[in-house]
């Protein structure tokens, strides 16, 4: 395959005639050399490339747009999540971007998403920097050498050096992400945070798969036991534990972030993982720690001086430090990344108020209620402006990436839960013993043990207690877990303060759910928490 190409590149209905060099489908070692020569980053002691992504080290959801046109106008769930942009501004920005791109060298990579062959979407990712192209190599699926891609469905331009002029270009800021469903093009400018590249295509799949194929697209990780057949899914907003908890030495990884659930089973969209590195330690997260080696891209990680040893505790650039690597860097990952229908689903919520039990077992109605509510916290650093855990309701545990109304995804999930008799668990990976600032984050080892107990069936044998306000059934005991952490009221010193906080949260649930009430079945509405005066 040629490493440089000279023909024009198709950008939707536009053609781009480059003047600079086009580096096409470079190998990872070649891209690493480019990144170093371009001064995008340096090597760590273990051979990983550590790059600085610049001003943006997390997503910027307020600067994400969908082109409003005939295809999208009556299908997209417009609002503060899916902001409309007139097609004329898209055209204007594309023209300006092409002008900017004329004078620079570009990296071009072809790949695809969706492990399930019938649902594949081919991609061309055009990046300004070599490190962004390494990201695209790792995170998307890689065509095999004997099976090059026949045609390209979607094109992504990721050009951090190009900035919009807010009022003139129809956007809010210099940085932007614009999805154009008609042209099948994504424009990313002004930001070098690579998470925007993967999450924009995730948004595309969240639109196409449910509408065109009836497939549930999910913001979740997935793994299977060594015997296969016992697939588990872990839904959760950024920073709640999808990547961490799905990397489990006792099980095999399917994927860490984005999956589809079809009539046949579950499949990964991506070809790699994008793990948070804050506080990373071999003892706690051995699989992720050992995936950091030559080829891996580290973003915004600091090093211990000249030793070049990554210092994962140093969050001076951002708390959202990241490692991107292909899925096979995790030992025992399933390839192709396809698995049977799930037996267990875990909703991961980082409860910043410390109200929810570390684990509870949900009925189908409760599962639907909590899926639509998507109560969790935004974790520090994951979005611009978020500097401490901030409670939020993120429908389907991924509202920021959903172009359709949450009820559409919930309806498909509801049917699947019943058909496949899936057990759903709500897991609080956030605070216990008090709210953020008073309590502490539940130790990872406890969360791992609770999940293992649920998967092994250990929690089928124990007694349950029903939460007075939330109506959730939580176990009174669990092997390898101190029982005083299983009940949140027990882990708080001040019980009155606990129930006051729980009632406040129940009110917030009710307030948030009002927007969905009209289309919901009464049984789902009955699964809501109920404010109670609890006498102690
Ligand atoms: N109890 C816990 N469960 C899960 N993650 C935890 C827990 N306590 C701390 N963490 C940390 O929280 C972060 C979870 O991030 P990650 O797994 O990357 O989330 P996601 O993939 O959902 O974005 C990791 O840095 C992990 O070490
Ligand atoms: C890439 C991201 O997703 P996650 O944190 O869920 O891995 C992100 O939120 O920027
Ligand atoms: Mn993740």
Automatic annotation (TrEMBL):
Annotated binding of Mn(2+), by residue: 199, 219, 257
Q: What is its EC number?
A: 4.1.1.49
Keywords in alphabetical order, please. ATP-binding, Cytoplasm, Decarboxylase, Gluconeogenesis, Lyase, Manganese, Metal-binding, Nucleotide-binding
Q: Which domain of life is it from?
A: Bacteria
Q: Please indicate if the UniProt record lists ATP-binding as a keyword.
A: yes
Catalytic activity reads: oxaloacetate + ATP = phosphoenolpyruvate + ADP + CO2
Concerning Pfam families, the annotation shows: PEPCK_ATP
Q: In which pathway does it act?
A: Carbohydrate biosynthesis; gluconeogenesis
Q: Kindly list the positions annotated as binding ATP.
A: 199, 219, 236-244, 285, 322, 441-442, 447
Q: How is the cofactor bound?
A: Binds 1 Mn(2+) ion per subunit.
Q: Which enzyme type, at the first EC level? A: lyase
In this chain, substrate is annotated as bound at 59, 193, 199, 322
CDD domains attached to this UniProt entry: PEPCK_ATP
Question: Where in the cell does this protein reside?
Answer: Cytoplasm
Quick check: keyword Repressor in the entry? no
Q: Which cofactor does it need?
A: Mn(2+)
Task: Please provide, alphabetically and separated by semicolons, the GO molecular function terms listed in this UniProt record.
Answer: phosphoenolpyruvate carboxykinase (ATP) activity
The similarity comment for this entry is: Belongs to the phosphoenolpyruvate carboxykinase (ATP) family.
Relate the protein's function as given in its record. Answer: Involved in the gluconeogenesis. Catalyzes the conversion of oxaloacetate (OAA) to phosphoenolpyruvate (PEP) through direct phosphoryl transfer between the nucleoside triphosphate and OAA.
NCBIfam families per the UniProt record, alphabetical: pckA, PRK09344.1-2, PRK09344.1-3
Q: What is this protein called?
A: Phosphoenolpyruvate carboxykinase (ATP)
Organism source for this protein?
Olivibacter oleidegradans
